[in-house]
Amino acid sequence: MSTGTPKSNGNGGSVRLEYAFKRSAAEILSTEPARLVHIGKRRQGHNRLIFGENLGVLAALAQDERVVGRVRLIYIDPPFATKATFQSRDLHHAYEDTLSGAEFIEFLRERLIFLHRLLADDGSLYLHLDERMTFPMKLVLDEIFGSGSYRNCITRKKCNPKNYTRKTYGNVADYILFYTKSGSYCWNKQVEPWTEDRAKEYRYVDRETGRRYMKVPIHAPGIRNGETGQPWRGMLPPPGKHWQYLPSKLDEMDARGEIFWSATGNPRRKVYLDEREGVPVQDIWLDMRDAHNQNIHITGYPTEKPRELLRRIVSASSNPGDIVLDCFAGSGTTLVVAEELGRRWIGVDSAAEAMRTMVK
User: Fold this and answer.
1) Which residue from 271, 262, 276, 273 is spatially nearest to 244, judged by alpha carbons?
2) pLDDT at 152
3) Which residues contact 77 (CB under 8 A, 6 or more apart)?
4) Which of 186, 238, 244, 310 is most deeply buried (CB count within 10 A of its CB)?
């Protein structure tokens, strides 16, 4: 840990990313709306597959009262600034990923400004990138959404370990930036099922019931002047902390046998394994490798993401009937999962191969 750092004056201030030809938000929002070209039969509802360059399409959707401010979830997996051209498995041209540096940042920022406008107040955005552009784009998202709207930078293991010949660590991860439009947003906690390894912290067994449990503190950081900062059973919470529950609530828990008392009189709360539906999903995802690295059905479209990755995101940040939008729809995985989970969806892409893949 470093020492001797200057004392903060409490005015940390915001951080902005500046670069050449960065346009104002007002100029971007004045983009000429595109004439929407719908693919397929569902042209009137919210299940809409739109063929076209997505900036103009987003400008048009921003004028559609059925969409603007009503999208609950946006997931986008844009180009990664690889300077490469991608083909499908059957060698059809898919798309070109040739932008880099400031050009790429501004390209994506323009679309994110429209996407922020399309989101509902309780909506969420997931932006999928790799190490090339994740970090500058976090600054851009902080500027558009506000740094307080940042929720997670999810690290995803995308493939098996590589036998690199160059002098660096194996690159097996990419990243998903998770932002919300406000502090009150749709959230359905995702859990992973219990395994013996995941349940190993529940190593104690209640003598009377045989239930497995773990011991956790009954205090939390922070000083309180109310009842939770007062003595309970003749003892004060540790310095700088307070009781997590009112003393009366702690008495009720103790009467039910939910408080464990150590030989030295130190109380701990019993948390029972059978009361937990699973282990809450963390921000490192090791079980969501790219589709072509697994023995599962794939479309053959390049950079296709696994269905379970989208299932987790759509389940966590939307409810049945909500609108899910993907304006870099590619193989259509987001739309398929949204359909399966009873969401309405809007997909946009400018690549003919993407449209052929999604329609098929």
Assistant:
1) 271
2) 98
3) 128, 303, 305, 326, 328, 330
4) 310
Residue 87 pLDDT > 70, yes or no? no
Is the CB of residue 249 less than 8 Å from the CB of residue 299?
A: no
C-beta of residue 161 within 8 angstroms of C-beta of residue 172? yes
The answer to whether 94 and 354 have CB atoms below 8 angstroms apart is: yes
Would you state the structure tokens that stand for residue 123, as one six-digit string? 């909506």
271-295: burial string, b at 16+ Cβ within 10 Å, e else: bebeeeeeeeeeeebeebbbbbeee
Residue in this structure with the two tokens 């098929």, named with its chain if needed: 360
Report yes or no: 97 and 80 within 8 Å, Cβ to Cβ: yes
What pairing do the DSSP bridges indicate for beta strands 344-349 and 48-51?
Answer: parallel
118-132, 156-170, 193-207, range with the lowest pLDDT:
156-170
| Residue 168, φ and ψ in degrees, nearest 5 | -165, 170
Is this model's pTM higher than 0.70 or not?
A: yes
Beta bridge partners of 96: 85
360 against 64, higher pLDDT:
64
For the record, the structure tokens of 43 come out as: 């042209």
Q: What is the mean pLDDT of residues 338-358?
A: 93
> What is the dihedral sign for C-alpha 27, 32, 37, 43?
positive
